């Protein structure tokens, strides 16, 4: 746990939350500043700042909860769809430095945008550049 992390304080019960799901390792609660009715955050109970900080078991538990919750959140608020996403790092818009998955219900005509809209201007990459990036990612996994 991190003493100065709001999500760790929620896990500890020091800050109230509208909990919708809880296991030994994962907690899900309604976002206090929702982007839509039913906006839910799913977090690991143990503190991890970035997705890459999660061990395989915890990552599996976290995403199992996300897959279980997403259709149920949609059904609860009669949504037409949902955006599911993670802001990983300050440059990506992560405001709380604790891994959290957003389940944001979407409704026809709600004025929201797809996840592709968060990327800003798209880079114009050549085939050679794409090949080099793919090779670098593969090498990073092998290293």
Commentary on this structure:
With 143 residues, this protein is an alpha+beta fold. The chain has one domain (6-142): 2-Layer Sandwich (HIT family, subunit A), CATH 3.30.428.10. The protein is built from 3 helices and 5 strands. It has helices at residues 6-12, 56-77, 127-142, and strands spanning 19-22, 26-30, 40-44, 81-85, 101-106. The protein has a 5-stranded antiparallel β-sheet, covered by helices on one side. The longest helix is centred in the middle third of the chain and has 22 residues, at 56-77. It starts with 5 loop residues before the first helix and ends with a helix. 20% of the residues are buried. This is HIT family protein. The active site is at residue 100.
Largest sheet report: 5 strands, antiparallel
Shape: globular
Report how far apart the termini are. 29 Å
Number of strands: 5
Nearest-integer average pLDDT = 95
Lateral strand order in the biggest sheet = 1-2-3-5-4
Helix content: 25-40%
Helix count equals 3
Fraction in beta strands: 15-25%
| CATH architecture verdict | 2-Layer Sandwich
CATH fold naming: HIT family, subunit A
Rounded radius of gyration (Å):
17 Å
Helix- and strand-based class? alpha+beta
Domain HIT: 6-113
Active site: 100 (tele-amp-histidine intermediate)
GO molecular function: catalytic activity
Protein name: HIT family protein
